[in-house]
Amino acid sequence: MKAIVQNEFGDTSVLSYSDVKIPQIDDNECLIKVAFTSVNYADIKTRNGKKGKGNFPLLLGLDCAGTVVDAALNSSFSMGDRVIAFPKGGSYAEYVIANEQLVFKIPDSLSFEQAAAMPTVSILSYILLHEIGQIQKSDSIVIHSAAGGVGSMLVQLAKLTGVQKIITTVGSKDKVNYVKKLGADVVCTYDTFTEEVLTQTDNKGANIIFDSVAGDVTSMSLHCLALYGTLVQFGNSSGKAGTFKTSDVHSSCRNIKGFSLGTTRKHNPVRLAPVAEKVIELFESKQITIPIAQVFNLSNVAEAHKLIESRNYEGKVLLKV
């Protein structure tokens, strides 16, 4: 089978379109023929050595959509089942293996293309909003990096929930209209969001702030987080760690919560099935959708990575396998 293999850390030149053996399933696993896989910013960080270990040869990719072609005995999955999955050992390949706890059936009405865009961003966003942030309709919230995959999903889910005010940030003003169409009430850039949040909330601050950027954005977010508010930290796309002092939280009764979908897939995968069921229903009923920025052939993975690194896109970037 064809797969994208990397044998060292580096730029896109380390990604090789290669022939490798089709993996063999073990107990409680499925073999899936991949139709599409998504490109996530985590893939970029893994490729250049900023995330994970160098267990080469390495296959990138977090999630995929495709068809089950083999399953273990007594499996709840059968040949021909249409699924989304979080494969082990990467998803940039024609065939992948995934633990059954990380495989979820999808209806015939949901296209593989749309399905491939959803696993990481939709499941993560749903958990961030409803389990970690525990949003209420009366809340004013801030969503950073709102034009990206997770940001796009967070905005739509928050709007669907009926959140009072959705304030968002984007890296450039040409993404403002896109984010507003998703349901954002206010869209601002990173250099103005603190003042804008205070203005929009009568100087009370936002009840919940969703931060995947970290670095300076984290400390700036604390400047406009309300009393008893929650900062939900789930990434560091800036490449820098965010910092805060204990005095930032105890006297103001504010709190900071962290969440990682990768950690949850590894240590608590059973937590994901009920969430996957809910978001699949939302996609099937077209209550939410994920705009597809661009689709590349698997062999053109380098161009897909360059687009992600440019940040000049809106929605999700996919690889067609």
From TrEMBL:
- What SMART domains does the database record attribute to this sequence? PKS_ER
Q: Which residues form a coiled coil?
A: none
Keywords assigned by UniProt, alphabetized:
NADP, Oxidoreductase
Cellular compartments per GO CC: cytosol
A molecular function annotated in GO for this UniProt entry is:
NADPH binding
* The keyword Kinase is assigned to this record: no
Q: What is this protein called?
A: Quinone oxidoreductase
Q: Which organism is it from?
A: Salipaludibacillus neizhouensis
